[in-house]
Write a structure and sequence with these properties.
The protein has 2 domains: 2-82, Arc Repressor Mutant, subunit A (Orthogonal Bundle); 119-190, no CATH class. Helices cover 73% and strands 2% of the residues. It has 9 helices and 2 strands. A hairpin with a 7-residue loop joins strand 1 (64-65) and strand 2.
Length: 190
């Protein structure tokens, strides 16, 4: 019975706090190459005994290699999860700052809160949307339909070029129609 309880605990989803620790360890590892308890405590704004307790939990789940008074290393699984959480954070933060113009400090805090609730598929749509805004035309009433078309074609910038050509042709036709209307009613402008 005790073994079943242990296995059930290991299979439960990660809590937001666990994800925060994995993200912090992942980022610290990329910055410093050596991760210590005090670095995690400083990054997360918690006390070292709190970090130690969480590290024991993460170690039991085979997400980190941890021995008391030693450096902390992510396992392959822990690294994969930490990397994904970090990616989510950056995508959401960039969306908030670059697209919605939220203050960077506020955006960082809110991205941290959002990253735990957003599914990978929704996050992928955020990424696609941001890429679309960077590469594709946004004028005209059909730009959201253009986004759907962009997604259907796998985020292909060549599709954006086609959409720009189409929009350009429609725009030229609209200009000609307006010019013809002005010439027809005697209100031609120079």
């Amino acid at each position: 019975m005790g073994e079943n309880k242990k296995n059930n605990a290991l299979q439960k989803p990660l809590t937001p706090a666990m994800e925060d620790y994995l993200e912090a360890i992942f980022n610290l590892d990329n910055e410093k190459r050596v991760v210590r308890v005090k670095d995690i405590a400083k990054t997360l704004g918690v006390k070292m005994p709190t970090v130690t307790n969480m590290l024991k939990t993460l170690s039991k789940r085979d997400l980190i290699d941890y021995e008391k008074y030693e450096y902390i290393e992510l396992t392959k699984k822990g690294n994969r999860i930490g990397k994904e959480i970090s990616r989510r954070h950056h995508v959401l933060r960039n969306f908030l700052v670059d697209i919605l113009k939220v203050d960077p400090k506020k955006a960082d805090k809110e991205a941290c809160e959002m990253e735990h609730a957003v599914s990978p598929s929704t996050l992928d749509r955020f990424v696609e949307f941001m890429e679309f805004l960077q590469f594709c035309p946004r004028t005209g009433s059909g730009w959201l339909e253009n986004f759907d078309e962009y997604r259907r074609h796998g985020g292909n910038p060549e599709k954006c070029a086609d959409m720009m050509k189409d929009f350009s042709n429609i725009f030229k036709e609209a200009i000609e129609i307006k010019r013809d209307e002005r010439e027809g009613d005697g209100t031609q402008r120079s």
